[in-house]
Amino acid sequence: MKSFFKNVLANIVAIVILCFVFFFFFVVMIAFGSMSNKESVKVKKNSVLTINLKTDIIDSPTDEQQSIFDINSKSTNILIYDAIEAIQKAKTDDNIKGISIEVDNLNAGITHIDDLRSAIEDFKKTGKFVYAYGNAVSQASYYLGSVADQYYLNPAGGIELKGLSTEVTFFKDFAEKYGIGIEVIRHGKFKSAVEPFLRNDISPENQEQLSTLLNDIWGNTSSKIAASRKINTEDFRMVVDSLYGMIPDLTVKYKLADKLIQKTEYDNIIRKKLALKDKDKLNKIALHKYADSFKNKDSDNERVAILYASGSINSGDEYNQIYSEKYIKYIKELQEDKKVKAVVLRINSPGGSANASDEILFELQQLKKKKPLIVSFGDYAASGGYYIAMAADKIYSEPNTLTGSIGVFGVLPYFKDIANKNGVRSDIVATNANSAYYSSLHGLTPYGVNLMTRSVEGTYKRFVHFVTQNRNKTFEQVDNVGGGRVWSGTRAKEIGLVDELGSLQDAVKFAAQKANLKSYKVSSYPKEVSAFEQIFSNMNEDDISAKVIKNKIGQANYEILQQLTNKKLKSEVKMEMPYKINIK
Fold first, then answer.
1. Which of 16, 148, 224, 276 has the fewest CB atoms found within 10 Å of its own CB?
2. Is pLDDT of 28 > 70?
3. What is the rounded average pLDDT for all residues in the chain?
4. Helix, strand, or coil here: 427?
5. Contact indicator for 394, 365 with CB cutoff of 8 Å
6. CA 148 to chain centroid
7. How far is CA 177 from CA 5, 370, 416, 549, 564, in A?
């Protein structure tokens, strides 16, 4: 018995020591990582600015924050604002002779790629070269790479150029089969976020809006690729329809690529362009490192602040995504900061909680009373994401931004049938007539349905009211383009939902102009937190479980699961867009 306790104690001590060693090693790694990030970067002569596989283009400091589950990731994040600034800086940098695009799978939003292409097009006007190389190239990567003067492909490679499509999954039969009831209340025939729970096929309204949206985005995208590659419209459509990009020889025949070569041969082409000798090293500098080489230091200059609102909108006080309590703090800080003379609200959100969106809108309206507030849309500014923009002095959208979705819905699942089939039932004892207007077993009472309908309708009217004020339209005019419908940024400009088509840089420049600033610094909010803070601030059981599930079933399926299981999401009236569109 004594030896048993000795062994147990020895194992406990070993585990404690191991945990301590792991923790110490982990902290040291993060410390060294932070130190290395702060090292100054020197740009060598005859350098080539490189956009490669190790750089992810993100919209906000809160996007894709590192966690304990992806600490070994080799990719590096760079804000789209910083990426554009870096390319603009490279135009006049004598040490940068050209740009090399070396990306097979680009992790960036559609509007980010649009802005990168525009910046590179502008860079080309200097006479400096832009070359691109690919192996197995995704559609998004080719969209960016096609802007190059010359596009080279591996002889065994291919380009997945196929156009856009979307697939809508329906759960009505699944829910009925397994005894899951779903109460759905919505306003707007285009509010398709709830269609998967109501139907077994796509509605004509959703078919119409998706077709229009996809064709708008693909029209913008395909025309730019065809123009860059000097392919006429008919030939380009034939090439895409036939998937000829996947056959290496045909990529050259149909002008998608200029030559099939190995990567070493590609590097030699760049070396020859730079007139390097055999002994000379080819100096490539990654986009994120180049951006770090000239970032503004803190100064006493007057500032334009970019407040990033990225992700779904929720109630609470967490760091990632848009949590109302946290964002109200940011807004109040910017309101009181005397150095901040104007604010650009960068929205990249499909919406979320109606209540949280309303709280944020109110605080933005207070901010607007003190200083200019300009809004810039990224990939998404829909539902609650569009709602919070209604405090703006001016709204900039990208042509391919998913915009609008002025609509409201509520989803409340209940499990009476599946419970009864498995021998589970319940009786309710209550003090008042509607104490149990909703329960997870019985669903909504008739009065509860009426109550939720009134709530949804009231929220929709409030939504439209703020749009009428900001966009100078009547209720009928907004309702005609609302109803939950999603528009491209191009069409949103045509129907008056936004003021201008332009980038985040355009919005910042206008904000500075409105604040009468000649010299200013651009600051980002929220501030990026360290990897150490990110990891240990999210170590609770729920977050770990959520991360594991999300990794197993994928982000899209996880979001659907949340609608059925997350108490916060079930109990709230929602302003949310039902889908995302990625060029892949």
1. 16
2. no
3. 84
4. coil
5. no
6. 25
7. 53, 56, 13, 24, 16
Across the range 27-53, mean pLDDT stands at 67
In the numeric block, which tokens belong to residue 104?
A: 């097979």
Instruction: Tell me the whole-structure pTM to 2 decimals.
Output: 0.82
Tell me the backbone φ, ψ of residue 360, rounded to 5 degrees. -65, -40
pLDDT classification of 71: cutoffs 50, 70, 90: very low
The span from the CA of 149 to the CA of 121, in Å, is 10
22 confidence band (pLDDT: 50, 70, 90):
very low
The one-character DSSP state at 311 is S
Enter the tokens of residue 534. 């990110």
Give CA separation, 316 vs 322, 329, 365, in Å. 9, 12, 20
| Token representation of residue 409 | 């819905």
Residue 6 φ then ψ, to 5°: -60, -45
**Element holding 336 (H helix, E strand):** helix 324-336
How much is the pLDDT for 25? Answer: 44
> Looking at residue 21, what is its pLDDT?
46
Question: Which residue do the tokens 């319940």 mark?
Answer: 426
DSSP 179-219: T-EEEEEEE-TT-GGGHHHH-SS--HHHHHHHHHHHHHHHH
**Distance in angstroms (rounded) separating the CA atoms of residues 464 and 476:** 9
292 pLDDT higher than 90: no
Within 8 A by CB and 6+ apart from 497, the residues are 386, 395, 397, 403, 404, 467, 471, 481, 487
**419 Cβ neighbours under 8 A, 6+ residues apart:** 179, 425, 426, 441
**How many angstroms separate the Cα of 56 from the Cα of each of 105, 119, 136, 159, 249?**
10, 17, 18, 20, 30
Cα within 13 Å of Cα(430), Cβ side: 11
Q: Which of 193, 349, 194, 315 is nearest to 571 (CA)?
A: 315
Residue 49 vs residues 56, 83, 95, 109: alpha-carbon distances, Å = 15, 11, 10, 21
Statement: residue 67 has pLDDT above 50: no
CA dist 546 and 562 (Å) reads: 10
The alpha helices in 369-445, defined as continuous H runs, are 384-387, 416-421
**Cα angle 71-76-78, degrees, rounded to a multiple of 5:** 135
Residue 572: phi and psi, rounded to 5, are -115, 150
Q: Which of 457, 494, 499 is nearest to 479 (CA)?
A: 457
Three-class SS state of 379:
strand
C-alpha neighbours within 13 Å on the C-beta side of residue 452: 24
Q: How much of the chain exceeds pLDDT 90, in percent? A: 55
With 70 as the cut, is the pLDDT of residue 224 above it? yes
Structure tokens at 397: 């959208």
The answer as to CATH 3.30.2310.20 being correct for domain 44-162+243-292 is: no
Report the topology of domain 303-412+469-576: 2-enoyl-CoA Hydratase; Chain A, domain 1 (3.90.226)
pLDDT of residue 559: 55
